[in-house]
Amino acid sequence: MVVAKLITSGKCYGVHSFIVPVRDLNNHKPLPGITVGEIGPKLAGNCLDNGYLRFDHVRIPRNNMMMKHAKVSSDGTYIRPKSDKLGYGTMVFVRVIILQQAAMSLAAATTIAVRYSAIRHQSEMVEGEPEPQILDYEAQQCKLFPLVSATLGIFFAGLKMWDIYIDVYTRMQEGELGGMPELHALSSGLKALVTELASNGVEVCRLACGGHGYMKSSGFARIYGLLTAACTYEGENTVLLLQTARYLMKAYQEAKCGRPVQSSVSYLGLSEGENTYVYGHSLSDLVFLYQQATSSIVATTAKRLKLATMKRGCAALAWNDTAFHLIKCAKFYSQCFLVCNYYNILKTAEVSDALRLVLSDAYELYALYWIRENSGDFLRSKKVTPDNLDDIDTRIEDLLVSLRPNIVTIVDAFDIRDECLNSVLGCSDGRAYERLCDRVFRAPTNIRGVNIDNQHWVLQCHTA
Description:
Elements: E1 2-8, E2 11-18, E3 34-38, E4 51-55, E5 71-72, E6 78-79, H1 88-119, H2 138-173, H3 180-208, H4 220-229, H5 237-256, H6 283-312, H7 315-321, H8 323-348, H9 353-373, H10 375-380, H11 386-403, H12 407-413, H13 418-421, H14 432-441, H15 444-448, H16 452-463
Antiparallel strand pairs: 1-2, 3-4, 5-6
């Protein structure tokens, strides 16, 4: 399938999809007028045949155009679809799948890092006592526990987005297109936020395993290489965040005028009051805080955009001048969705009280940790105070202690088989060092006892 500009009757109607034969079915060579090749090695995924393609006066039948929505008649007349947004369906579908894949990639990375941290003992925490598991150090917990919590949040968001996609797609088939703008904004923002969070998280997990994490046999290189590609395919993340921001600016104006808006932005306008957040360990309070802060940041960005437009006299230049703030409000909107959805899952999940307590601690840690990491923006939104941040720091420390007894069980519950994890450090039997030694001893150089590539030159140097 080729995506290219459609020009008919001398007018360009933008990009559309076409089925274009590339190779001869008999000898598999490129057809006349077609130049095709591969683009060379990549960070990962080199089994995929990513390549380049060039056409020189290549003709295809009209019926090779994908005409489910837009059509071209035999006389060259262009027939518009019911909505230009109908073509977004496939892109949105792939972005929803990317959320689920990112959750599984981060689950694999946290599984490796947590299991290795549980079997690795290092340094005396108290002089004269046995070396503790490095998982008992708060510094290690601060690296890994929020990422385990984030994995759960991303997984739940992927499930929710799939439900939203099915609902919107079903209504689209009946001619109702009202849900498409919100779905596009959500899928774009979440894809950008989640792939960035997950790929950065894999690197944190690798560093948490020390030098052993740098070995290819740790499994991190494969996970990171495949995951970080998602930051640029199916929409580069910065571009996607700006698309989400455009939706937010429109939604803010709608809410400001008192008109109804979609459910994911129903809280816009909450920032108008001066109420600040008083932290009382309530999970529902965290939802309200995120909604207030996001609403405040969207409102502030909209005002900046308006002032920039007046100053520049050009909406496009003003948009570029405020891109930093637009990206920020898109990230807050996406993060707010993650937190709110996480909370709704907790409320409705049919689980035991003991499991609900563990999931609640994980949710609270995830929500509070992101507040701490973005404390400047929360303070500027006037929805938290410096005293609130002190309370949040204390609560995070308490949550790390509370989650410690269950953290290995949580990653075990991700249920990733050793064959799929493919890591000597994260094996379920805890025999990381035995597996590591076995992998090293089976290296060809170690079996021979000498590096044959250098042997000739070393002997020459000795005999000279």
